Amino acid sequence: MTPDPSQQTVRVTRHFDASPQRVFDAWLNPETAGKWLFATSTGQMVRVEIDPRVGGSFIFTYRRNNEDIEHVGTYLEIDRPRRLVFQFAVPKFSSQFTRVSIDIVPAPNGCELTLTHEGVLPDYKNRTQTGWTKLLRSLASQVDPNAAPGVVISPGDIQFRRLLPGPIERVWAYLTESDKRAKWFAAGNTEPRVGGSVELHFDHAVLSSEPAPEKYKEFVTELGPFYTECVTHYEPPKRLSWTWDGGEAGPSEVTFELTPQGNQVLLVLTHRRLAKKHMPGIASGWQTHLAVLVEQLSNRPLPAFWSILDEAEDQYKKLLGFE
User: Fold this and answer.
1) What percent of the chain has pLDDT over 90?
2) Partner of 123 at 20 to 30 A CA spacing, among 158, 194, 232, 308?
3) CATH topology of domain 149-319
């Protein structure tokens, strides 16, 4: 059969702070794959069947707005943990099968995955590119500890854990020095004492090459929001806490704790005493800003800040029972 010259190829690459084996297996393990592959935050996966062998087939049925959508396909190559190739189709929209190749190579602190989707119709190229980019972010949330969602450790308290390149003094500088903190969160001086002030000047124009959605326009200007908070704990280079608006009966509090682990540093961020209504917005904010911090400290390209933020807010609304 002669290929249609009008068909397009889509390619998406992503780094994972996880082993090649862990990332590869997430494509073929039904329990894991059903949480992210062909899934979104607006529906429910109701059927996952995987026969993980060359010539074996898969079926993913996703229910959205009371409508079931099947993704079906056949595995053409399985070379753990380096390469996976399959053909697939979405019969509801087209009986035409396309080809997807997954190539995984080791990289510092993890691996790099390149997804190549061949046979995409021109009208669907941008949608396909966006779709796979989102799905790989969802895959990261399942296998990459540096992309994992925050955990509610008690009512009103949410905690994030990230393993960052050291040394600890470098990470501390990104929490306390204005020019470095501006690269992932907000600029502003920090008085190095309990009772001192923390200035937070938000200008997110430097955090992403994406244009900001209209509702966030105030955050991409030098005249963006400016807040002053109070230091409640100061123990360099191990622990820093400051107050934060959004508590049920007064300010909440955010705490950063740093612990060396070999040549890396474990960051534990805990935001306490949050009113439930504020948790999805604040949790999605921390999720997104931490994604930028990971890339900054790893000297990798900045992530798609606004896309991550929108997806994370939908995710946390679902996780926290707002949907």
Assistant:
1) 76
2) 308
3) Alpha-D-Glucose-1,6-Bisphosphate; Chain A, domain 4 (3.30.530)
